[in-house]
């Protein structure tokens, strides 16, 4: 509330002059009153366990849109030195003593300051008018569609779209992150935001600040790309065989929503990227045989909905499984034989065969080793168990059961 004496005294030029003479004596009480009021407010919020609302940067008056609940400080400096705390009302008004109700809905902080300056100028011609944001208000914004928990959420007026999506539990697997729709009060229709471009490239226009009256809807993706294979975060413990094989360990497939103008470079970045050692990718398109694209070629290659991109690991691998000491993936080295890879796996264990090993190709087909027993990249070597071991694994339980029966029969005979 404005100091009544200051506002009344400035209503006439004579009184304004008189007040100007006393301004130095009034400046301290006015600022002290504001400090006490704000300090009491902060102390009360602290007592209630309410944390200050974090801001990502200093507020830009020209880019901050006022919302109900925003707390402001109106300053008059010059002939009158005083500060008036204001709050944007639920109906979007600023109630200013001796001035009246000033519509603030749909205004930026800079616009509201300009409007207050215009209405205060006739009353206080020798005073400078300022308007500052002290604390942001809260919004209630509905979000529907392909999110984990649709609903209406309370958020500070400085919240961005991605913050609201996080409150709603994140996007579902089939969500179209390329066209999240925001409908604003008074607008002709929804505006599509490319949230994925924000997450991959940092494009802020895909992650706008939310405003009062916004409604958010996340549609289902209409088209997508599939990116499969090995990704940088999996290089320490690879899950797939090689750049040419999805067996014997399943590789991961990631779905990237499609949008006109995409390149394979963007699609790869959205899926996790090639990593430092990636040299290129395999591309399957329109049912044709897959083609190899170098890293440079893939970066600018236009993407089409339905494309399947396979990301290779930084090295080729050969898988060794079955009855060996250390089954797993081993780096492909040209010229290495089946026996060499089994040796890398520690050799057959006590149950493994010493011969008759099986070799499978990248698509799971049975293949014969090359000259000298060499295997190709992406091969899967299987060491079967010995037949006598299988026989004894069945015979041993039967022998044990027979011994128990004989023992029981002998006891019954003696009794």
From TrEMBL:
User: Where do the Soluble ligand binding domain residues begin and end?
Assistant: 143-185, 318-353
The keyword Transmembrane is assigned to this record:
yes
The residues that cross the membrane are 391-412
Give one GO molecular function term.
polysaccharide transmembrane transporter activity
What are the alphabetically sorted keywords of the record?
Membrane, Signal, Transmembrane, Transmembrane helix
For the Polysaccharide export protein N-terminal domain, which residue ranges apply? 61-131
InterPro entries linked to this entry = Poly_export, Poly_export_N, Soluble_ligand-bd
Q: Which Gene3D superfamilies match?
A: Outer membrane lipoprotein wza domain like, wza like domain
Q: Does the keyword Repressor apply?
A: no
The protein, known as: SLBB domain-containing protein
Organism whose genome encodes this protein: Eiseniibacteriota bacterium
